[in-house]
Design goal:
Elements lengths: L14 H20 L6 E4 L6 H12 L2 E6 L10 H15 L4 E6 L13 H13 L7 E7 L7 H4 L4 E4 L5 H33 L1
Parallel strand pairs: 1-4, 1-5, 2-3, 3-4
Helix pairs in contact: 1-2, 3-4
């Protein structure tokens, strides 16, 4: 576990998942160095299990930029604008010098099975599929969902690796409590020190 310690410093995972994510990050880093296409990834499981933080850590470990968004974000746009924003995202990825991790949380909100969507929803899924038909050496696509069975079959066909991010067991929950207690205490110390320095300066 020490090998991946810096990568997952503030994420508490069970030992097996810890190693899986660590190997995933190393493979992504090697893929970037070799200049070959990335493998698309699906993280699935209950909310609040650290899927977004995992994506950020992998991006940092690989020296890549990242774009974090939710499938529900596309609903705020007028019809047609949602597709425009999707293309802008992938255009940005193709132009990124460092490479881009595209993380779409709640992917089922935008990429559901087209059998259950209206024309607008179908068009958005079609646009996504048109930009992911070929794997890219410019971006690493990571989708996250609580309901993988709701994703469109063609979207799932774009995925190379599926990883279940389970809720923490008792041991992991204790570690989480310890971790965030330490972080809270550190923040209190910093706040106290700031207040102390301010009061000394005023006096």
């Amino acid at each position: 576990n020490a090998e991946h310690g810096d990568l997952l410093t503030d994420i508490v995972l069970n030992a097996e998942l810890f190693m899986i994510i660590g190997e995933l990050a190393k493979n992504a880093q090697q893929t970037k160095q070799d200049g070959i296409p990335f493998r698309n990834i699906l993280l699935y499981g209950e909310p609040g299990t650290g899927k977004t933080m995992i994506a950020k850590r992998i991006a940092k470990f690989c020296g890549m930029d990242y774009a974090i968004l939710s499938g529900a974000d596309f609903e705020q746009f007028e019809e047609g604008k949602d597709i425009e924003q999707l293309h802008l995202l992938f255009d940005r990825a193709e132009k990124s010098e460092a490479g881009l991790v595209i993380f779409i949380d709640e992917a089922d909100a935008a990429l559901r099975d087209r059998k259950n969507l209206n024309n607008r929803g179908k068009n958005l899924v079609d646009a996504f599929l048109s930009r992911t038909g070929q794997k890219s050496d410019k971006f690493l696509l990571m989708l996250a969902t609580n309901h993988p069975q709701d994703l469109d079959p063609a979207v799932l066909s774009r995925i190379s690796k599926k990883i279940h991010v389970a809720l923490p067991e008792l041991n992991e929950r204790i570690k989480l409590l310890q971790l965030y207690t330490i972080l809270f205490v550190i923040k209190l110390i910093h706040l106290w020190f700031h207040i102390y320095k301010t009061s000394v300066a005023i006096s």
